[in-house]
Amino acid sequence: RIDTIVNMSVDNSIEDVSEQLFFETFPNPAKAKLNIVSSVYPSTLELFDIQARLISSQIITGKIASIDLSQLSEGVYLLQLSNGNKRSSFRKVSVVK
């Protein structure tokens, strides 16, 4: 006879949506300039290449900001917004020439 004890727990917590970091980007795909509309500022906007290497980082000080993409090669990049220990999900951005 084999006795098995299974411990199960259910997380019924509700995540506070006001604590999440949201941002919009446009236009996408972009040629030279990408606009960012952020729900939290000041915050840090980080741009990564597809291999997750940090390309640039800048402070967002208002609801609307922009990032210069004119020096980047054509391809897919990732954006992430952070504020303290809170981070947004990654946002895919395509750069076209």
Quick structural overview:
With 97 residues, the chain is mainly β. Helices cover 0% and strands 46% of the residues.
List descriptors:
single chain, 97 residues, mainly beta, five-stranded antiparallel sheet, three-stranded antiparallel sheet, 8 strands
How do the strands and helices of this protein lay out in sequence?
Layout: E1 23-26, E2 33-38, E3 43-49, E4 54-60, E5 64-68, E6 75-83, E7 86-87, E8 91-95
Description:
With 97 residues, this protein is mainly β. It is 0% helix and 46% strand. It has strands at 23-26, 33-38, 43-49, 54-60, 64-68, 75-83, 86-87, 91-95. Strands 3, 4, 6, 7 and 8 form a five-stranded antiparallel β-sheet that branches. It has a three-stranded antiparallel β-sheet with strand order 1-2-5, with no helix packed on it. Strand 6 and strand 7 form a beta hairpin. It is globular and about 35 Å long. It starts with 22 loop residues before the first strand and ends with a strand. The relative contact order is 0.26.
Number of helices: 0
Structural class: mainly beta
Q: What is the overall shape?
A: globular
Sheet with most strands? 5 strands, antiparallel
Question: What portion of residues is helical?
Answer: under 10%
Q: First CA to last CA: what distance?
A: 69 Å
Average of the residue pLDDT scores: 84
* Estimated share of beta-strand residues: over 45%
